[in-house]
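Many introductory courses stop at the sequence. We go one step further.
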Amino acid sequence: MKTLAILLSLLLGIFCGAYSQDKTAIINGMIVDEKEQRLSGVSISILGKQGGLRSNDSGYFRITVPAGKAIALIFTYTGYKPQQKNFLLNNAETETITIRLEKGAQELKEVTVTDERNRREAGLVNINPKLALNIPGPGGSIENLIKVFVGTNNELTSNYNVRGGSYDENLIYVNDFEIYRPYLVRSGQQEGLSFINPEMTRSVNFYNGGFQSRYGDKLSSVLDIQYKKPKSFGGSAYISMLEQGLQLEGTGAKNKFSWLIGARNRSNRNLLSSQETKGNYVPSAADLQGLFTWEFNSKWTAEFIGNISGTKFTLEPEFSQPSAAVFSPFFSANLGLDIYFEGREEDSYSTNMAGLSVINQPRKHLRLKWMASRFSNKEKESIDISGAYLFGERSFDRSKPEFGLIINPLGAGVFQNYARNSLDVEVWNLSHKGFYDRGDHYLQWGVGVDRQHVTDQLREFEYQDSAGYSLPYQPGELSLFNRLRSSADFSVNRFSGYFQDNISVGDSSGISIQAGVRLNYNDLNEELLLSPRAGISWKPISWKRDIIFRGSAGIYHQPPFYREMRRYDGSINYSLKAQKSWQLSGGLDYNFKAFDRMLRLTTEAYYKSMWDVVPYDIDNVRMRYFGENKAKAYAAGLEARLFGEVVRDAESYINVGFMRTREDIEGDQFYNYTIDSLNRPIDSSLTENGWLRRPTDRLVTVGIFFQDYLSTNKNFKVYVNTIYGANLPYNIPNSVKYRNALVIDPYLRIDIGFSALLLNSDAAKRRRHSPFRKFENLWASLEVFNIIDRANTISYLLIKDFSNTTYTIPNRLTPRLVNLKLVARW
């Protein structure tokens, strides 16, 4: 960016250097603090230029600046937040302003240096929620930032996998209420909006393991979101080619009442229309959220949070032409598949959530919280799509008339996919939480009860015909390749509780301990679970370096919910037990200064041993569980993260992770046949798979989020989001013999965004009749998704030729796409 700035400066100099040398303007004014007290000795400089001046004893300043071009003044003062003001003045113009500086250090330094409590918790990653508004990517949400730390293999979903776990192993809380997501929804083009609205978010704490007893019963991670509590009227609005949103906030009743409302609408039509399957895509998703707080007095506060969300997805596919290169000692070709479709898919997902909490602070060190919530989820999937395909060698010679056509057919057939699925889930929760601060001991406790009711109707079948034979082939019969038919209607009551003590072992020792225990019981499988968990941190007081060592150990359980309980054939396993694990982690948190920048390095090694595991497959973009506790597994790895202002005043993240996760499925035995020259089995042996890669086994993950700006103008910024993940195994669904049969190529994606400040509050106020006088700023952004246009693979199609040999054709993700965005805040 510095090189770019130099080139731009040279070009400007060539065209208008001599013309503007003698043209100047004057900026003068007063600098005061929050209490209108005048500040002397404030440093004032022109952005990108050496030198400057200071305000005098009366807080007054006067500076001569170039006229006829955009400049920025930087005001800095020890103990106060720096402030930038932008100007574009005419020749001989004089501008008089008043600068009000606010107390406080820069946000990054507060997080990494001052807030040691958060640095002492194992597995905790503090994330600046403002970055979610800038990070380029199709999702545009908090989950986009999470993926920088844990990786991903699908940009079309908000799902993420942590330390070898599935997405169902993650907990999400918003203002202490647990958040659920649709269950049947496929993790891709059918998805709608994430629950979390970035414009409403105040803080983001992400635990990628080792989380404490106060959080719930899952195996992998916790995402803890706190929404803002407004102090005055404000808001924001944005519009882009993919999504539009409006957020408003304010107060009333002498600041005793505050309200925060956000509405969003999203359509991925532009994104999906560029995929390999062409057709009429009509995706739409919208939601409305609100947070309302009433402070009755200094001891009693009530808070209500509500969400209404609806997603619809309609697809009328027309044709698809995926291709793949195959090389072997016997065959070398560019294979292609031409599919012509009929029919349509129509899905709808509707979720509603309402939560009420009452907080009582009877004494300074005691806080009590009572909570009640209801979550409702209604889903319908209707699919009736048939197709005819021709499979073979495709011509890629542009000089020939058959370019793009199948020139050597290897297989042909027809298929039909049919589904009529409906699911209703309702969850009621009552809970109590308490907090008591005794100085060296910070006690936390809680109890809760959930009632979950599930009603499900599942009707699916898949018919395949290859070369005139229905698969699987049975002479004289018309066979379905896959068939699911089931229904469920059941309720389960879950009871949970926890007690935790955060202990500070004296200031001189630098040691703190978090220890607690969690209980869980449900009346469906009548399983009582006890989960002790502990964490420890130590900061050597005598060391000059700012290092904190931290570690954790504990037992983690995951009681089954509906998705894990449903077997491959659609039947429900009501006696399914919880998946269980013990986990260890240890690492350090190091603040240091390099290149005149404050940086923060965290490292952590971990090991997870799991039993009573419920195995699953990734069937295209949907998870399919075995519905049985029939595996043991482990995950081990090392993670390192670097936070900081690599470029001053522009926070960036770099994450590198190494991991191995394996599973051993009980009873995964199959017969291996030896075939003679006449294709007859002559011998067989019973074979067991043993330890195999789990579907999320990825050796290397790299995530980078980088910000920069023009050195002469901070109002022109660039954001780069890069994610790399090593290869993944792909299992043939519902096949014991062919688990780990295929490999998905490494995932690499680079998204880039450019932003320019069109208007700020000072510029708007200078124009007396401007309609933007009340606006804080107005930004325009250009985003390029998948700028390298890499064809990442999400899954495979399995195609048989005329000789019944199976070939694999990759299902690709989204290609390069441009997005425009306009954001206004007031």
